[in-house]
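Lay summary

Proteins are chains of building blocks that fold into shapes. Our project writes down both the chain and a compact code for its shape. Here are two examples, one after the other.
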Amino acid sequence: MAILTPGLAVNSAQVAAVNGTFTAPSQIVFWNPTAPGTGPTFLSNPWDFAVFNHSQLPGLWKVHGLPTLAIDKKKHAGSDGLAITANGYIPGPVEIEGLLWTPDQWAFMQAIAPSIWRRPTKDAGRKFPVALAATIEHPALALWGISKFVVIGVAPPEPGSIRQSMSIKIKGIEFVPIDTKTRTKTAGSPIPLAQQLQPQPGSSLSRPPSETDGGIHGAAPDTVGGAE
């Protein structure tokens, strides 16, 4: 019997699969019909499955991702080290890989496949990648704040790491909406504290108090103490 995580949003196809009434719209023959594997359709440990667009994927899944920063490096003549400027965030590749070994897992994968691999229509193409962005949930991706991606490629099933299993790979790119604000941050040699505290020419800090605030106590020097 399939297992669903308590509290996880599921769709009607998942419920039907759990109840044993699920049938894929168009059946593709299972790779080993005479000696199929056995086990739950949906695993219960959150580290063992992925959730695509709020639907748990069948079988065992692992994920890969690599977000990075856009970096400029500049070396100043006659000095050691580098000035490193971060020019923004680069959405990295996201890959999820599933292992299927039972007929029920295979049947459900066939049913959900059209929602995973979508060829953009002309209208969707104008909105790309927003129209093709999908949510993806897995603890490993959540650690780095990755929650959406755009599927850019899928691999046909191929023999998996365990006997009588098939592996399916789904490749994508993290989806991050365009930020119109330019954000840069440079890491380099710090400015010495003495230089930071040195008054700049023309500033009020470069003139004596008598020229800026009327003396130490706020009165002109010739009136302090009642002198005329």
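And here is the second example, written the same way.
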Amino acid sequence: MEARTIGILTGRCRLRHEPRPNDLSHGGADHVRLVTDLGAIRAYQWRMGQVCTMSSYSRACPGCPAIAEHRFEDLVGAGRGACTFRVATIEDRAYVPPRLLRENTFALVRHGVFVRTRDDASGEANAVDAIGPGGLVLGAASEEEHVGGYAVGHLVLCVLPREGAAVALAAADGSVGDFVALVERARTRIERLSEIRARPTTTGRIKALVALLAETLAPNGTPLARLPATLQQRDLAKLAALRHESVCRALGTLERRGLVQRSADGLAILDHAALNAA
């Protein structure tokens, strides 16, 4: 089978069509395998459906969310030179393949925002979380758990496969503690969102939601001065359990109060303290 060689930045890559790896088989369809040398990094890429690309790296890659927060360093190759995680890239507005949540223990958001959804008794998907860079995405606990989500912006996830995860975590000093800390952070974030959805007024919900997102989507813990432009009013509506028109009116109210400012570059946070005030 012939392969084409092309240049990518300072490296080289070979683009080759071949059968999918056995552990990600999906109807025997072909996939695209990308083998690239970029410094000491070797990457293997394949397609999971039309909107998700999976990659494996031989060591921690640039922009690694674990390295940035000094977490899971033994797993991502900071110490032993081999990364246990795989990288999944999902197109903007695409739904994350259910297999991705079923077949992996957890994921870390490297870039973009992941809006997590859960089906209610009627089968309707409700947004229950918005996870930004460095945040933890737990895999589905079972085949029966109806959880999903979609990408806001170009989403990049570092996923830990279920197979061998327990052994890898047990062998990595400090990784279990890192995992527990991120689970606690996720629990707090979800509880705050649940409390926001229970607020009686539309403006109160959006006011608190914008403050929450400015804090939890920030990769370094410092509240964002501007929410990403990819985060749209319809996303805020889903997270706050409101109609789109209600969100638009509430943002107008906050704008007149001088708390936020809407623009094509995203929602600017002008007074974070006032947004957080009861």
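What can we say about the second shape? Residues 59 and 81 are 5 Å apart (CA to CA).
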